[in-house]
Amino acid sequence: MLSFAIIFHLIYFLLGYGSFNDIRYLYNHDSDFEFISKIGLHLTAGLVLFIAFVIWLFHYLRNNPFKSFYPVSKNYLRRESLLIVFIFFFSITIYHSYEYGKLIKSRQVSKNIYDPKDIDVIRQAACFLPYELEFFERQNCCDSTISRTKRYKEIDPNYCGPGEIYNGDYEGSIRENTAAQAIEVAPLPVPVEENYVKQYSYLYYCTSIEYYSIDNRKALPIHATAKRWLLGHHKDSIKQLLTDYIRIANKYKIRHTLDANSLTELCFADNFKIESSLYDCYYNEEVLPQENSAEFRILNNAPLRLLSLQNETFFTISMWEVYGYITLGLSVLLLSFRFTRFKPWIVSVLGSGVVFISFAIIANILSNENDIVYFYLGFTLLCIIKAIQMISTKKNKLHSGVWLNWSAFALSGFIPVIMKLIYDNTGEIRECINHYYVIVRPEAPIHDWIGSNWGLIHAGNFALLIIYFLTVYIPLAYKWQANPSE
To answer: Sorting pLDDT into bands at 50, 70 and 90, what band is 486?
Structure first.
């Protein structure tokens, strides 16, 4: 079964690697639609794997030398246990070989395409490409934060501007300093909400392609450069910028009908006013309907997407944790059935559900969350002690088998629960005294360590569970099998 799973991984990796060839796929596809379109492949692969697993499981459980009292050593059982862990791990991670194949192909296709300067060009060129008119509307201009505050006060007397609610705040001070240094294009009118007429101009653009917000600090130098070029009639600078933008669009295979000369002339027509927006063509449209149209939003995301692909870590810590607990959980469940009889196994499995419900009831009764944690830790230690005591003294085989299985089941969250208890009780404590928060207990060093090392903590828990199973559970199961039946 392990060989079959490894071969299946290789096949699925090759399918993922060959799933695309065009660089546009990396930043211009619908992942949900793609999954639906490939669902037949994934269902077929899952069904084949499931059938193979069932066939293997049938033969594995049918031939059990340990239960048949054949001379089997403890080391043999340990090797068998580790093999089961590997089989489950390789079986449940099949789909990610497909995704990993796509990632490798993505990095190869995008190699030497990404250039950090592309993002700067796209950010600056957006000032002269009004495909989204609201970014160029006068009331959305962040040319002067003070002026915007005054304007909103005319509409709403209760409005509290950034300078008032961010006093002493670094970001707020940056906004106010920028506002004080800004040059007003024209005196702002006193708008009345019901009759205000929107005005659009290249001079009012102040945003960034990553953050569509008028208050974004990254947009301020972009806006200042664009305004200087417009007011100074630096046509050559704007034309060169748009030419670079078109070159980048061609490099990323963005569909467009852009022309640098006509776009430059539009910027200076009728005192920088914008009469109509450029058409932003989406990926699912077949034709570009008008002059100076492009897939603007797709190009905005393309360089950042390629950058993320180059730096992407395929298996995250959280993913390893999920796969680790699923693998160990299924392995313990199967091996406990393998090493004990059906009756104590089914009683321990069903009994675990009863214990879980009991824990939930107790948790609702207890007012202190720490009490339920202590109850769980005590129950885990009780299971281990009872299993050792009853098997060593050859007590009731059904009861001892249940305690033995419960000891492995309960240990699955032992270390994380302990660390969570320590984490919750070593944090900083503040109390409100005379309208001010005062630190009455500082944060302990271990609190920060636990918060930064949950991945290591879960890895330690995996190691504890494996070590317990190999060094304690298997020898106890070995003795339990030799004990007389009740």
So the answer is: low
**pLDDT of 341:** 84
Nearest to 327 by CA among 114, 88, 57: 88
Q: Which residue has the higher pLDDT, 205 or 323?
A: 323
Looking at the DSSP bridge assignments, the partners of residue 431 are: 438
Q: What angle do CA 387, 388, 390 make, to 5 degrees?
A: 65
Rounded CA-CA distance 92/298 in Å is 35
Show the 3-state SS of 350-368. Answer: HHHHHHHHHHHHHHHHCCC
Among all chains, which residue has been given the structure tokens 């006193």? 190
Q: What tokens does 78 get? A: 């340990």
Helix (H, G, I), strand (E, B) or coil at 331: helix
- pTM for this entry: 0.63
How many whole angstroms separate alpha carbon 403 and alpha carbon 387? Answer: 5
Whether 136 contacts 274, CB under 8 Å? yes
Encode pLDDT of 95-138 as tens digits.
778 888 888 888 887 777 878 888 889 888 988 888 888 778 77
Q: Can you list the alpha helix ranges (DSSP code H) found in 38-109?
A: 39-62, 74-92, 94-109
Annotate 159-223 with DSSP letters as a single string: ---HHHHTTT-HHHHHHHHHHHHPPPSSPPP---TTT----BBGGG----SS---TT-TTHHHHH
Residue among 427, 431, 424 nearest 444 (CA): 427
